[in-house]
Write a structure and sequence with these properties.
Helices cover 48% and strands 9% of the residues. The chain is of the alpha/beta class and 285 residues long.
Length: 285
Amino acid sequence: MKSLILTLSALITISSLQPLNLQAQGIAVVSGDKIAFLGDSITAAGKRPGGYCQLVIDGLKKDDIKAEVIFAGVSGHKSNQMLARLEKDVLSKKPEWMTLSCGVNDVWHGKRGVPLEDYKKNITKIVDQAQAASIKVMLLTSTMIKEDQANTLNQQLLPYNAFIRELATTKKCLLADLNKDMQEALKKFPKDAPKGKQLTVDGVHMNAYGNYMMASGILKAFGLPQTKISAFVEEWKKIPDSKTVNLRLKMSQYEYEKIQTKMNAPVETVLMKFMEEKKAELIAN
């Protein structure tokens, strides 16, 4: 466990792998800028405490850049749906910046997904319309569909991400190559670490480390130095309520009733209080 924690603490250095078109001078965002985060359920979850969208705003704030946030992630959405709601969810709010995370569902949904050529057209239209509205765009490569690059879905995702990289160059967008970052990060875990949930909770949606990785990649693309980002990560780990541990304690009905007769509060409440006290004790020691 100690080796796992030490390894995870070092994972964020992978975002120092700066895409070729991101050698920007200084920080691209200034105080007062509004940043719209357009995406699917991964981005929708980024709105939560400890989510990557919140961490990006927090990281900028720690660097004395007070940016406003527009959350525009909708679970299950693909490129065609993001294009359809672009005006309502982004353009009408007049942000200075928009990050675009799209591609996982276009591939993952199979027959209900979006073929590559249609995806290209949709993403290009999203970028064109945003830029026509004087919104600066950062493109994010899609992370992964299960934490196994060799699987069929991730192989199908390859040309989608290749297009994002190409479009970033063509349209002069910033690029956060999160797919590359994620693959590199997964190589850093100890061999005995649990497989499939190192950066995600289910193979797709980010856990705490996945959120750190995504936020770090975006902040790096905006121009923040890695030394600062690494320090931010250590502070992010202390965000309250950003981690939930679900414990399923099994017992017989007899055991439950026996415990209840000795308590003046519900068994669940008593056990939760006990765990809170035990948590504080373990942290202190």
